[in-house]
Amino acid sequence: MNYPNNIKKDNYKINYGNRGMGLEQDLNDTNNYYLQNKTAVIHKKPTPITIVSVDYKSRKDAVIKEAYFKTPSTTDYNGIYKGKYIDFEAKETKNKQGFPLINIHNHQLEHLKMIIESGGIAFLIIRFTSFNETYLISAKKFLDYIKINKKKTIPIKFFKENGHILKEKYNPRLDYLGIIDKFYLEGENYER
Amino acid sequence: MNYPNNIKKDNYKINYGNRGMGLEQDLNDTNNYYLQNKTAVIHKKPTPITIVSVDYKSRKDAVIKEAYFKTPSTTDYNGIYKGKYIDFEAKETKNKQGFPLINIHNHQLEHLKMIIESGGIAFLIIRFTSFNETYLISAKKFLDYIKINKKKTIPIKFFKENGHILKEKYNPRLDYLGIIDKFYLEGENYER
């Protein structure tokens, strides 16, 4: 199977512990903060792989000797917040013009669509590493945009106009649930 | 790290495609049925692993050459049904007396507790392969039981008296959401 660049980059990052993982590390720290404070139970899913061979030296040490990365069929993050089902995908891009759609799989877009239809809270968190700007965009707005605009890259302008910028703080690192409170759970929930 | 036997067995099963995976295969079939019928969006999480080395022959073929199984920090299954967050763990045991607690990690029990506290629907699906009997048991009842009874194995009697037997059907294979409708979502939700 052919994977977009970012998949391998992400896996590369995952390979070597949790050092310098950028957005993923920020989100893990944030989710740990939410977990410890009993704000929300949101976890990143493990990287989907197909295991071909495993060496069982002993009961303690099973070593996977051959495995392959699978195309994810869902988003990376889900969980529960204020009794609501939360589901999102997080991506980084170095691109200066916008977000290249090759970074996200069709399966993941279909998944987000199904979550919206099921009454869940679905969104994307996208970081433009060139400007170090991170946006939360509702999955509905994102999907509506790509349905109409058949572009390979979503211009950064779209995120500036329709998304919510996520400022980095000390704790929680990226308080995306603050945005969810404001734009999904309070008032008219217009983003759903 | 030391893994209970079942973890390796489960991974063994996962290693070789989807053949003869028993309960896991039944649940995957059931979840696919729910997904296709837009009943619910529930997926099994990938097996958590730590990747140590990856061989990138070409852009297309990244081969994981060394990886290790990680102790799961959450349950294997979660998703959304009728707007509600669903979370459960599924286990098989050959044991004839009951369910050995070594089959489930403390992290997973803590996770189930947090899901209950967060207002999610949390349960376990346990199959006794010796009798080919599968039970759905509410996480609350399961956790309450092990809090009081400091046993290494939960007797099958407990599941017969407090759980709900899941009969295998053609489609959906194991209609566990039928039980959820009846005992969680209708009436007094007494299982929560």
Can you give a write-up of this model?
Two copies of one chain form a homodimer. Chain A is α+β, with helices and mostly antiparallel strands and 192 residues long. Chain A contains six helices and ten strands, in the order H-H-E-E-E-E-E-E-H-E-E-H-E-H-E-H. In chain A, strand 2 (49-56) and strand 3 form a beta hairpin. Chain A is globular and about 55 Å long. At the A-B interface, helix 1, strand 1, strand 2, strand 3 and strand 4 of A face helix 1, strand 1, strand 2, strand 3 and strand 4 of B.
Topology:
The structure is a homodimer of 192-residue chains.
Chain A: H1 5-15, H2 23-36, E1 40-44, E2 49-56, E3 62-69, E4 77-81, E5 84-93, E6 98-100, H3 106-117, E7 121-128, E8 133-138, H4 139-148, E9 153-155, H5 156-162, E10 164-165, H6 176-185
Parallel strand pairs in A: 5-7
Antiparallel strand pairs in A: 1-4, 2-3, 4-5, 6-9, 7-8, 8-10
Tags for this model:
homodimer; 192 residues; alpha+beta; six-stranded mixed beta sheet; two-stranded antiparallel ribbon; 6 helices; disordered N terminus
Query: Helical residue percent of chain A?
Result: 25-40%
Structural class of chain A: alpha+beta
Strand order of the largest sheet of chain A: 1-4-5-7-8-10
Strand element count of chain A: 10
State the helix count of chain A: 6
Oligomerization status of the protein chains: homodimer
Overall shape of chain A: globular
